């Protein structure tokens, strides 16, 4: 059956505005609260520095002009941001958009080879980088022939650095007349005009660049706002944002969850965002108390710490009014302890993907606690089908693959027609997630049909790790599967078939341990940390496959789970001795 959201998307959505034109310029939207010039948009967590709406607008305009004067950034040119969260991160994003460019947001802990892959597939010409990660960027740019003078620093650096900084470019742009004409899009053009390349592993292989137009981000923010404001029967105490609300900004802004749900959604509601470069638990708790943060956007590993870390008892978190968990399923067992830690908070959960430009479902705003295991209800304007293995449509309570239509859906994978055709079908997105849907409107994520591992909310494609492991001279065959982990959700675990000579050596336990360490290093030397084989490695005689040669991962998942359980139990026993 075809399932539609209980609530239609009745609020207007402009299709002729770019992201900064909608969020920074005086555009009057019926759900958008008034914002005086001095309303705070960003607060730097460590220093308390504040940036107002007027300052953000001025800095964005000056930076765009400085970038155009310095590099003549052209329409549809891709610019990469390789930085942790920073108080000027969105200034850079919006300045690129003012010039008609596309933001290629990148994880700053990528290795050089991983960054080369992203810069290459998104055709980046210019990079903004935090000084701490400059070496990686310079090495990657050198491999691709990107000139050193096309690298700029998002944060001021010591005088020894010759690269221009954001502040340098803002100064340059503010001292001269505007050198470019910001284009107003034609009606409907925002649905195709690209705003972001955000990387996603899709179903297989190296990460792919999801092409997200301006309209997708804008409409998803309006979908979330409609869900929060226009739902009938919202009790006053469940109203999501009120004057005095403050949001934490610790989720990475390069990730779709942080970019849309955390940042742009809160900017739309004029809620200040406390920016932290990275998640450090004690700093996170200190910030909640020091800045009187009322709203938390988090992922399940953070919730595990909130529920179990002894530090929490030293902090009064009773002023927190709202927590949303996303990017990975939240264990139902954590809901009780979480409500004790945050006794006055609405606890919500959502589901979305990079390919859907984030939120597809959210806990109904009429509920103060998400149902255990439920990802919530469809947000306004979303439709879905649940397709069973035989191709028929599932009924209530039956399992099948979730296929989603949302006005926020991305266009496809940039420069990859084959992968696009596999996932994006006539405006619908195949999620690869196995789900159940109930008559009450709740969506339950049961399993993943596509071969992805979710580590702290980040996607890991087993095929990417398998391809790399097969390059090791000792490896004849390999299969990577997820194993459950209390903190990270899942971790990669590798079953490895060795070539005959190596297989003889590992009969000696010392040799086996040494080879496992060598294989772990083979991965960790070139892959970002969440892709490391932290779940474990097991040598095996064969990898089960079907007649066509496809890996039968499901047969190995249970075995890996048991091996991981035994290894943890053995480690716990040793720790007691």
UniProtKB/TrEMBL annotation:
Domain of life: Eukaryota
MF terms (GO), sorted A to Z: CoA-ligase activity
PANTHER family linked to this entry: BCDNA.GH02901 (PTHR24096:SF422), LONG-CHAIN-FATTY-ACID--COA LIGASE (PTHR24096)
Protein name, per record: AMP-dependent synthetase/ligase domain-containing protein
Residue ranges of domain AMP-binding enzyme C-terminal in the record: 464-550
Domain AMP-dependent synthetase/ligase, residue spans: 38-414
Pfam family, one: AMP-binding_C
